[in-house]
Amino acid sequence: MKSNGKKVRVSFNSPVILGFTIACFLVMILDKITGGASTNSFFSVYRSSLLSPLTYIRFFGHVLGHAGWEHFMGNIMMFLVVGSLLEEKYGSANILFVILATALITGIIHFVFFPRFQMLGASGVVFALILLSSFAGFREGEVPVTFLLVALLYIGEQVYYGIFVQDNVANLTHIVGGVVGSSLGFIMNKNKMNRY
To answer: Which among 48, 122, 125, 142 is least surrounded, fewest beta carbons within 10 Å?
Structure first.
C-alpha cells in the first residue's frame, strides 16, 4: 500500500495481544470441529482431580475458551482495543504476565469455590486490562480519579449483577480480574516490574 509515494506496511504491533486473539480464535474453531470436546478437556475450568495434569492446564487454558461466537466477539473486541495500547505502554512480557496471573488466580478461585459450575472465557483478563488501563497516568503518591471511576463502575456493576441478576456470567471472575489488573498496575507504575 502506498501513501504519498511512501510504502505503508502492516506491522505486528502487539505480539502478545494478537497471539492471544489468534489462539482464542483457533480454540473456537477446534471447539466447533470437536463438538465441544476440546473446550471441555482443555479450555474451561471446573472441579476435577488434582492428580490429573489436565486440571493444571485448565487453570490457564480456560481464558482461551468461549461458549460461542458472540461470547468470543464480546471479549476479544474489548481485549484488542485496550490490550494493544497497554502492551505498547508496559511491554509484552508484563502483559503476558498479567494474562497468565489473571488466568491462574481466577481459575483456582473458580475451582475452589464453584465446584459444580464450568467456567471459560477471557472476560477476567479483559477486566484486568480495563483496570490496568486506568493506571496509565499514575504518579507516585496519587490515586488517579479514572481508576476510582473505572473501579466503581466496572466492579460495582459486577457486584450488583452477582447479587441481583441470575445469569450464566461469572461475576466473581470479573471482580478478581479487576483486582489483579489494579494490583499489577500499581506495581508496574511504581517501576517494580521491568518493561520488556
So the answer is: 142
**pLDDT digit string, tens, across residues 110-129:** 899 888 889 999 999 998 99
Q: Is the pLDDT of residue 2 over 60?
A: no
The residues that bridge with 119 in the sheet, in sequence order, are 45
**Any bridge partners for residue 45, and if so which?**
119
Q: What predicted TM-score, i.e. pTM, was given to this entire model?
A: 0.84
**Phi, psi values for residue 50, rounded to 5°:** -70, -10
Chain-centre distance for alpha carbon 78 = 10
Spatial separation of the C-alpha atoms in residues 145 and 164, rounded to whole Å: 27
Cell of 196: 520488556
The span from the CA of 13 to the CA of 80, in Å, is 11
Q: Give the helix/strand (H/E) hosting 111.
A: helix 92-113
